[in-house]
Amino acid sequence: MFGLQVDIGMLLEPLGFIKVLQWIFSIFAFATCGGFHGETTLLVSCKGVVNKTVTAAFAYPFRLNTVIFSEPDPERCGGTWTDSYLVGNFSSSAQFFVTLAVLVLLYCIAALAVYVGYKHAYQHNSKLPLTDLILTVIITFLWLVSTSAWGKALADIKISTGASIISQIDSCKAPGTTCHFHSVTRMGTLNVSVVFGLLNMVLWGGNIWFVYKDTNLHNQSNKISQVVGIYPAQRI
Fold first, then answer.
1. What is the Cα 26 distance to its own chain's centre?
2. Degrees to nearest 5, angle at CA 202 with 200 and 208
3. pLDDT per residue over 97-110, tens digit each?
């Protein structure tokens, strides 16, 4: 009774169509965040060196406190240049965001397989729509939390890799050494990842209603409203 019965028409219905959008948007969310690579560049002048470029390359998961700047020259500015690192560890927020996106991607694939191949089972087994509803509510909340955390972390990453980093480098305070901030990789893709996080939250939140309509909770509420509507008419 509940064997495989492929019906792609489900993808044209709100429940299936929104699930496809959720699948696509989750891909963009983790790709724009997890695939980022950037670097901060300084210009250093010291003993025997004039405007030498030093760089610190960083990427996901943004453990900036492990990222070291390159040396200005083999002599390390006459011995005054010490190992200098970026500041901050934002891996927890970034990994939370990317991990959620990957898990959501896998769940969307599983849900679409059920919608398309086992629509009859989904409609006749009350546990499946209810489970789908519970997970949809949970995922909506997790998108809210993870996107908020990642958005705050991104703001801190921009500060930690910007011009303010010079004040954190002890070698730049050495006598005869001057450091000037040169550039940092544009973080447009990371901004986009936050936008996709918000869009995912809206999509999952909006989908709660369509999933709820397929549960017994919605059917019971309809029956109660019908009964309430019938009895007053009989009293009259």
1. 8
2. 105
3. 999 999 999 999 99
